[in-house]
Amino acid sequence: MSLEQTVSEHYSNKGLLNKIYKGLEKLGIDKNQLTQSDLSSCDEFHIGGSDGTLMLAEKLTMNASSAVLDIGCGIGGPARFLSNEFGCKVSGIDLTADFVNTGNSLTDQVGLSDKVKLIEASALSIPFADNSFDVSYMIHVGMNIADKDVLFSEAFRVTKPGGVFGIYDVMLLGNCELQYPLPWAVEEDGNAIASATDYISALIKAGFSLKHEDDKTDFANSFFEKMSARKDSSDGPPPVGLHLLMGDLTTQKIKNMAKLIKSGIIAPKILVLEK
């Protein structure tokens, strides 16, 4: 099985939309009056949620006239958040059909289908013309893509000259073995984590110039401490949360990732590049 097949199978989630709607119903939220913020507890599938998305976006200079690409969009949480926040049009691509179908349905429900469109596609063969986007970005995606050269060459190709490419990924700091399961892989065969040095080398080879690099370890540790405190004070998972996407191993996946970050083995980092 190829890495892309392994990754797609890892994230496959039949009936996800109905799970989300049932959870919202338990919270007293009418799906026919759904807002983008109603989904924030489950559709921002990365460290920091919408705060993490905004943290990256603030470095990417986007506005209402920007054409934006989300590479590895999941169910479209960041795309909807950014469109709602900045008024921009966002195209998203993702390997997982369940995510794309769920994301487009949710986008329709919150009234953003004129601004946000998700497509089932590979980041190694992005289905858009050269120089299509003012801003391209990916959030917690590179850990599932081994061929960084092709990934970043494709990102470079579809980004306009003078445009920016933002990355918010978990990256490798040391050579220690990782503890599985993790949010992006339950076993080693689904993992393609790499160091910031490897990222930057491939990005420069693709043609980008590095404008900004930032380690977000402190941000992550604070986020996980708050998450742990909420979990300790609750009787179980909320009706709508990341467990709907991550499944029965959610707690262990998050615990392992948090431990590896706190131990200095991996770290979330932001890279901002210019074409």
Entry summary:
This protein has helices at 3-11, 16-26, 49-57, 77-86, 97-109, 148-158, 196-206, 217-232, 243-246, 250-262; strands spanning 67-71, 89-94, 116-120, 133-139, 159-172, 209-215, 266-274. The protein is α/β, with parallel strands linked by helices.
Number of alpha- plus pi-helical segments: 10
Give the total of domains.
1
CATH superfamily: Vaccinia Virus protein VP39
CATH topology: Rossmann fold
Defining traits:
275 residues, alpha/beta, Rossmann fold, 7-stranded mixed sheet, 10 helices, 39% helix, globular
Task: Describe the secondary-structure layout.
Layout lengths: L2 H9 L4 H11 L22 H9 L9 E5 L5 H10 L2 E6 L2 H13 L6 E5 L12 E7 L8 H11 E14 L23 H11 L2 E7 L1 H16 L10 H4 L3 H13 L3 E9 L1
Parallel strand pairs: 1-2, 1-4, 2-3, 4-5
Antiparallel strand pairs: 5-7, 6-7
Please provide a written account of the structure.
With 275 residues, the chain is an alpha/beta fold. Helix 3 (49-57) packs across helix 4. The protein has a single domain, classed as Rossmann fold. The chain has helices at 3-11, 16-26, 49-57, 77-86, 97-109, 148-158, 196-206, 217-232, 243-246, 250-262, and strands spanning 67-71, 89-94, 116-120, 133-139, 159-172, 209-215, 266-274. A seven-stranded mixed beta sheet has the order 3-2-1-4-5-7-6.
